[in-house]
Amino acid sequence: MERYDRAITIFSPDGHLFQVEYAQEAVKKGSTAVGVRGRNCVVIGVEKKSIPTLQDDRTIRKIHSIDEHVMLAFAGLSADARVLVDRARIECQSYKLTLEDPVTVGYIARFIANTKQRFTQSPGRRPFGISMLIGGFDFDGTPRLFKTEPSGAYYEYSANSTGRGEKPVREYLEEHYNDETTADEASVLKLVVKALSQVVQSGAQNIEIAVMKLSTEPVILDYRILPTEEVEELIKVVDAERMETEAEETAKKASGLK
């Protein structure tokens, strides 16, 4: 009997590669990550889990810059992500040295996806247990956002999520993503915080956010990870808006009963 539940290169009778599906389960146990593409910016936010008091939080970042114009976040196994991040950075440098142009976001997303796919087709290996959100700008100033899966599949999105809270966060984004909520950096930041708040306990210590935006013309990019104080202020603004909305809805219901 073929042990298709253990061998990466053997399909089950009903067409499944179980090791790939097990890798997808590892993603579902990972921290929630969300990415949103705005009109002139890309924002990525991730859930930060509590860490031991003596641990340096800089060693467990879920958001990484892989070139001046590309960043990514991941859900799943951190060690697997480290390997792919290193490979992606080397590919970005090699591409620029060879062609004297920076990679497009689509190119590096495809490179990461191809690397993942090769690990689903070779004996003696296992799939990468991570899903990535890859965001950035092409050389013409166009914002892009991609998502890659453990299977090697990749797709472009306006907004998406991954990790343990993928479903409720994605449903929130599908309902609230529009021209108004993505008009500028401040609006996109609020949308990301509101989406993460569907599954993450409110508090700056539980959220990490990175922003990449066009700063001037010609194309110059500004990439930064928001400091804790700025995230805290953003959460206060979002909470105040939510309380105001709830108060208005309560007032409408009360007036309707009269």
Please specify the SSE layout and strand pairing.
Layout: H1 18-28, E1 33-37, E2 41-47, E3 63-67, E4 70-76, H2 78-99, H3 105-118, E5 130-137, E6 143-148, E7 154-156, E8 159-162, H4 166-176, H5 185-196, E9 207-216, E10 220-225, H6 228-257
Antiparallel strand pairs: 1-2, 1-8, 2-9, 3-4, 4-5, 5-6, 6-7, 9-10
Describe the protein's architecture and organization.
Its main location: cytoplasm. Belongs to the peptidase T1A family. Keywords: Cytoplasm, Nucleus, Proteasome. This is Proteasome subunit alpha type. It is found in: Cytoplasm; Nucleus. The chain is α+β, with helices and mostly antiparallel strands. The chain has a single domain (18-227), classed as Glutamine Phosphoribosylpyrophosphate, subunit 1, domain 1. It has helices at 18-28, 78-99, 105-118, 166-176, 185-196, 228-257; strands at 33-37, 41-47, 63-67, 70-76, 130-137, 143-148, 154-156, 159-162, 207-216, 220-225. The strands form two sheets. Strands 8-1-2-9-10 form a five-stranded antiparallel sheet. It has a five-stranded antiparallel sheet with strand order 3-4-5-6-7. β6 and β7 (154-156) form a beta hairpin. The longest helix has 30 residues, at 228-257. The chain is globular and about 65 Å long.
